[in-house]
Write a structure and sequence with these properties.
This protein is mostly beta strands. The chain has helices at about 5-10, 140, 145-150, 210-215, 220-225, 345-350, 425-430, 500-515; strands spanning about 25, 30-35, 40, 50-55, 60, 65-75, 85, 95-100, 110-120, 155, 260-265, 295-300, 310-320, 325-335, 340, 355-360, 365-370, 380-390, 395-400, 440, 460-465, 485-495. It has three domains: about 5-75 and about 120-160 and about 255-515; about 80-110, no CATH class; about 160-250, no CATH class. Strand 16 and strand 17 form a beta hairpin.
């Protein structure tokens, strides 16, 4: 549990400055809170419960706060978008020149920064993924902020009301008016052959439905849309929209589950507002350098008996840079899992938890449980794993650290970093490098049979995954490189178990029942089994 998170910094002093952190999954047996700023669970935001309650309705909680962490290597440029190169023996991060400078020579080294953006820091009170209409935009946007902030929220959809591939509203069109903003489709050559007629178009612009009706088994508009679209200059993607101009709003979409939640957030200002785009109590001590990524977060839950113990969270990460590839991307799920009865309060339940990891083919998941079981009240364990991309194609790491020892990247461009081996400890941990062995303890063993647990205390873990780390020098199909305008799709499953063997079985089941894992090249194909 962190003492740094101030609920008022998130919810603001009124509705007009609110970021949305009050939606929770509740149709299944895990009641998980989600938000529109890269953060899940409740933290200190009101209401406190549920955060991650299991079983739903039991009053037993398994999460204080969780967050998305995303890192990559990015070429540094100046304001004229020229690549920068290190001068010999630089004294600080500003000793750089473009290749048009008289001091430039062919042997100078290209400046490549390792950068990380976090939904929540964990130790410092910092949020670096924010919705378009967040409190930092209040003054720069003025009236526009007041107009659109109330609808910049977590929106919902459900297969109880609409179905993918069905004309839900009887207007002879299929899936033409989904929840929120209906993005245009990708370029024709990026779509399956059957649907190339829809390339570069908004779906309501095309009157023919025959390709959909004849190929319903591969119809997957969630993957077909171009998430790098910049034609909507208001960035009001979660506002109800009449996409087909028939007087109805969001009436014919393509939900995945009985309870879908969808939100959008960024690590930069889409409006071009200058200044550090971080938020929270400790922003004054932090220098955030963005990767320029937009994230569509979607989470899914069903009530059916065979799948009710699962929640899936999908992160569609889009590189919004127009020139630069993001090289050697890495992603992490940070979990501070205060486990115990909600009625006992945060301070009481935080100090006796254990985090651990199960490695090996078909597994690779992190989990937490209560160290003493709270006299039989808190008997479960809750884990998280990757479902797509194919876990067998990834590298994994998992770390534990004590409260107050969180990794430091408060000045990621600093070349001296005050005795530390790197200025970006977060990216090191995300890619399985230990910047401080006395502080960071690996939970993932070197062999599948090695079982490492954190001490019984106020624990947390960072579950990280990445590609082959050859993306800049010798890229392969196993490299996690994200080209300009392209989207990387990562889906994690969250699941419970009463003991380790049951948890391992649930981990296998969550991967099996999810669908067919994709990769960067097949991200457009349907991968989620219908239920």
């Amino acid at each position: 549990m962190s003492n740094f998170l101030d609920a008022r910094s998130v919810n603001g002093s009124g509705f007009g400055k609110r970021m949305d952190s009050i939606k929770n999954h509740s149709v299944g047996n895990i009641w998980l809170r989600v938000s529109n700023f890269g953060f899940f669970g409740s933290g200190d935001n009101q209401p406190l419960w549920p955060s991650l309650e299991y079983p739903g309705g039991s009053g037993i909680d398994y999460l204080y706060q969780g967050a998305l962490w995303f890192g990559a290597k990015k070429v540094r440029r100046n304001e004229l978008m020229q690549k920068l190169y290190w001068l010999p023996n630089p004294s600080d991060e500003n000793d750089v020149v473009p290749d048009t400078d008289p001091d430039w020579t062919p042997d100078l080294q290209l400046v490549v920064d390792t950068l990380t953006t976090v939904g929540f820091d964990g130790d410092a009170g910092l949020y670096e993924f924010l919705p378009a209409y967040n409190p930092k935009e209040t003054t720069p946007l003025g009236i526009q902020f007041s107009m659109y902030n109330p609808c910049d929220t977590v929106m919902s959809a459900s297969i109880r009301k609409q179905s993918r591939g069905i004309d839900d509203d009887g207007d002879m069109l299929i899936d033409e008016d989904p929840v929120g903003y209906g993005f245009p489709f990708r370029k024709a050559d990026e779509l399956p052959d059957a649907f190339q007629i829809y390339g570069n178009h908004f779906l309501p612009e095309q009157s023919t439905q025959t390709p959909i009706e004849d190929n319903i088994d591969i119809w997957f508009p969630l993957g077909f849309v171009d998430l790098s679209d910049s034609t909507n200059e208001n960035y009001n993607f979660t506002e109800s929209t009449d996409d087909d101009l028939d007087g109805l709003y969001d009436e014919d979409g393509y939900p995945v589950s009985e309870q879908d939640y969808i939100s959008f957030y960024y690590d930069y200002s889409p409006f071009g507002t200058p200044g550090d785009r971080d938020f929270g109590r400790d922003l004054g001590s932090n220098k955030h350098v963005p990767l320029n990524i937009r994230v569509r977060q979607m989470s899914y839950q069903w009530s059916y008996e065979y799948i009710k113990n699962l929640v899936y969270v999908e992160f569609d990460v889009t590189n919004m840079n127009t020139l630069d590839t993001l090289f050697d991307c890495a992603m992490g799920i940070y979990m501070d899992s205060d486990v115990g009865p909600q009625a006992w309060g945060r301070q009481t339940i935080a100090d006796d938890d254990v985090s651990s990891y199960v490695s090996g083919q078909n597994y690779e998941f992190a989990y937490t449980y209560d160290g003493d079981g709270d006299n039989g009240l808190t008997t479960g364990k809750v884990g998280s794993r990757v479902c797509t991309p194919n876990p067998d194609s990834l590298e994994f790491a998992c770390w534990y650290w004590k409260v107050g020892h969180g990794p430091n990247d408060k000045d990621p461009l600093d070349i001296h970093h005050s005795g530390h081996p790197t200025a970006n400890e977060k990216y090191w941990l995300l890619t399985n490098k230990n910047p401080k062995e006395a502080w960071y303890v690996p939970l993932r063993g070197e062999t599948p049979n090695e079982h490492i647990e954190s001490p019984v205390e106020d624990t947390r873990y960072l579950f990280a995954f990445y590609g082959d780390m050859q993306g800049m020098d010798n890229p392969t199909t196993g490299s996690w490189n994200l080209l300009p305008g392209k989207t990387m799709k990562i889906v994690i499953g969250i699941f419970p178990g009463e003991n380790l063997e049951e948890l391992k079985a649930e981990a296998l089941w969550s991967k099996q029942i999810y669908g067919v894992a994709q990769n960067l090249e097949t991200v457009i194909l349907p991968d989620t089994f219908p239920h």
